[in-house]
Amino acid sequence: MTRHSAASGARLIAATVTCAMFARAALAAGSAEFAIRWDPAEGGPQTLEEIASALSLSPGKKSSFVVRYFSVAQPSDAPPDSLVIVRERTSGRAIESMYKLRGSSPFPSRGAEAGWQCPLETTSKQKREVDIGWTGRNSNRRNHSLSCVADGRVVDLLPPRFQPRPLDCTSSVTRIRAAGNLKVEHWSLPAGRIAFEVSRNGKDSAASVEAFAHQVVRPLMNRGVKPQTESKTALGSSC
Asked: Which of 80, 127, 134, 195 gets the most CB atoms within 10 Å of its CB?
């Protein structure tokens, strides 16, 4: 190989890496969130402490926040089986907005349709993820999502074409972060409903799915948990 061809190759590699980094810097393909959610009125642990005991978790860092969902105009160019979800999360004076495009089919990672851009005017984190929610001891439901978050209010960050309108209800959430990257949440939902959720982020692999089922799903179901099939969005939007 000549010095000129080696230099050209190096420039090509550098350009390719740079384009990849800037074009899709925060979209991590192969990422997943595993979750199980239940209504304590139907059985299972009734408090965060009972959940920690069922899963042999040590006490972790606790936080609380309020979640409000928004109604928005759905983009005309969105995939037919997808839904745009917009929510605002408030903790003290801190406000975080999230925009998510969720669908039952995978979003393209290559080609002309892969160039998804977050519509929030400023973005701190962007990700591509598979949401895997348990519906039974050995069954789960998969949804695919593209999402982004930014500090600030939805009305200040989301373009007017989305016509964002805050719903008339909120949910209060208490979260405990535990060992093993687990999040344990208590949701006080509209109309007095309660939901618990245990979740973990990881890789979309058979081994990770089985690990979550073994460490979280089965122990909870052995304690009487009946998995909910409604999403947090549906639960939190039921004003």
From this structure: 134
DSSP annotation of 169 reads -
What letter does residue 28 receive in the DSSP assignment? -
CA dist., res. 52 & res. 44, Å (int): 12
Phi, psi of 52 (to 5 degrees): -60, -40
Does 18 fall in a domain?
no
Both tokens of 124, joined, read: 């701190």
pLDDT of 222:
96
Which residues on neighbouring strands pair with residue 132, listed in sequence order?
34, 142
Q: Which residue has the tokens 């618990």?
A: 196
CATH number for position 145:
2.40.320.10
Is the CB of residue 128 less than 8 Å from the CB of residue 31? yes
Cα(197)–Cα(167) distance, integer angstroms = 22
Sequence-ordered list of residues with C-beta below 8 angstroms from that of 233, at least 6 positions apart, any chain = 69, 85, 87
Structural domain contains residue 45: yes
Instruction: Single out the residue of 216, 232, 238 nearest to residue 44, CA to CA.
Output: 216
pTM of the predicted model, to two decimals? 0.81
pLDDT range class, residue 8, cuts 50, 70, 90: very low
